[in-house]
Protein 1
Amino acid sequence: ASVALLGPAEVRDLAAMLDLTPTKKLGQNFVIDANTVRKIVRAARVEAGDVVVEIGPGLGSLTFGLLEAGAAVVAVEIDRRLAAQLPLTAAQLAPEASLTVVHDDALRVLELPSEPSRLVANLPYNVSVPVLLHFLEHFPSIRSGVVMVQAEVGHRLAAAPGSKVYGSPSVKAAWYGDWRIAGQVSRQVFWPVPNVDSVLVGFDRVGSGLDSEELRVRTFEIVDAAFGQRRKMLRQALSTVLGDSQEATRILTAAGVDPMARGEQLTVHDFLAVARATS
Ligand code: SAM
């Protein structure tokens, strides 16, 4: 299908037409470079016929790249003006493509009009991690994806135990699958130019989630406690969620985890073992 991609002039014209001043609060930095869009679509290995969910399509920069690759796109946008405009732009630039725009807060959406197999997005920076975790939790049909996030956040998501930036988002992301840095993105490809660098992060879901929802909630509680006091040994850091320090030592030992270790040394499987040992 023939699809036109947005460049700097189109992005500015659309924004002017909507009388839109991009807001920081909604992380509105729009991609103005077609090469970057194609790079994201390639990194996500999007194929014709894939159902892709996009979070925060904005003016459509990435959306048209996904449609160009032949994907059917479901796009969730919180800004009413942008959600209303996108189908009108699509009628001009991608008249034969399959696009459904959902006007909603991505942090709250629990149902989509079709089952996506991939998630591809240039995420709003202030909510990137909670939005990702929300989608992975509520839409098990999503098997893989690529997202553009602030560089610091991307390195956290892809971090392994022992790394300086390994933390609660790294463990929670690993609950759902394997993560990798899939590319760097210059801040010059955005309008307006943000004051942080960005990276592409790719993921593949592993299995169908590690365990039951109840065990996930308990594991995440333990993870938050461990990294809430990341300098402390686990037997102390976890005493609030596992009982006193003596009880914490007993549970950690039963789980095969050294009570004197710190959270940053544990894999998601270790945290899961601790959660299991509490029941
Ligand atoms: N995808 C577009 C692009 O690449 O040019 C826009 C990306 S911009 C970084 C983030 C987009 O997410 C904006 O369009 C913004 O309005 C939208 N957004 C912000 N918070 C959101 C939320 N909670 N749910 C859905 N969309 C949101």
Note: The two ends are 55 Å apart (CA to CA).
Protein 2
Amino acid sequence: MRSEPVVPQHSLYPAEDRQSTDRIARSAVLGRAPQNPGSKPSTEGVVTDTRPVRPCTEDLQTADLQAALSQGELSLVYQPILSAATGAITGCEALLRWNHPSLGPISPAFFVPLAERTGDIVPIGAWVLDTACRQAAAWPAICRVSVNVSPVQMQEPGFATRVAAALRASGLAAGRLELELTESVLMGDAAVALDHIMGIRALGVSVALDDFGTGFSSLGYLQRFAFDRIKIDRSFIKALGKGRESRFLITTMHDIAHHFGMAVTAEGIETEDEARTLRDIGSAELQGFLFSQPLANEAVVSLLREEAHRQRRGNVGRQPRSSRHAAP
Ligand code: C2E
Ligand code: MG
Ligand code: MG
């Protein structure tokens, strides 16, 4: 988790929670290229919620947060992650949603930091892990599920055992689970976090470093902490159009990752230009609104069935979008 809430530029609550699965899968996901490279992808068929996502934080009561779990107000949506080379879906990131009874949908960028302060992130994080593993176990096995883990959870005794229990209860293969940590994991007791990372990787679960480059840590930790992947934050990608320095920074991040044997996922890809640049630089995977908004579980299931069917027919993955014709 980021230690400071990040205010998103626009609504974080698109169709995901409300749309019929087919409608999303057909019109909003992956198959519709923007008419002009670099233009905003079409959101036809997707109802984007334009309500402000910044709640009055004083309106957020700790008691509400505790009730959220027991009252079933929390849910998960999943954002597809694609192979940069083939366009095939390789994973989906689980993202937490809170539908507050009076305030409406609240961004995790606001309520997760609150839950971290109160400690409620521990039971909430356990629910996220269990739910994501259970739902992903019912997906076609072609893709993994990525779960965000708070630094607070990484200080809890027995966290790796908790992960093993979630795998066992769901029947999800360990190789299909990835946990996403941020650099702030080092702000607690780094030795405890390192221990958990070793335990998690020993299970066969992979570990990604989310929002790479946005924290305040020295790069030295990359030597000590064995990450399987880094995820380059949208802030770097957004800056690409503003000068050569951003491209240099992103290229250097890839060099560092490859030196340490880590794969790179570029997140927050919104335009064809960004996708092309990141492919050229060498990202293994791409994720962002250009390809898909986060989707309800049922929509992901339809999408993955379609994808698995295509792969069985030998038509592995989708061509990189830049090499395909724009959809009508
Ligand atoms: P994150 O893990 O870096 O997740 C990526 C965020 O970027 C998500 O916001 C996603 O909806 C958004 N995003 C994806 N593609 C694009 C794009 O093309 N453009 C833009 N502008 N944004 C894009 P979301 O779902 O609001 O989550 C915000 C943060 O909240 C996450 O950042 C993560 O740090 C945290 N979070 C979400 N779910 C959980 C969870 O289950 N547990 C914990 N501890 N943290 C979570
Ligand atoms: Mg993440
Ligand atoms: Mg991130």
Note: Residues 75-312 form a domain with the TIM Barrel fold (CATH 3.20.20.450).
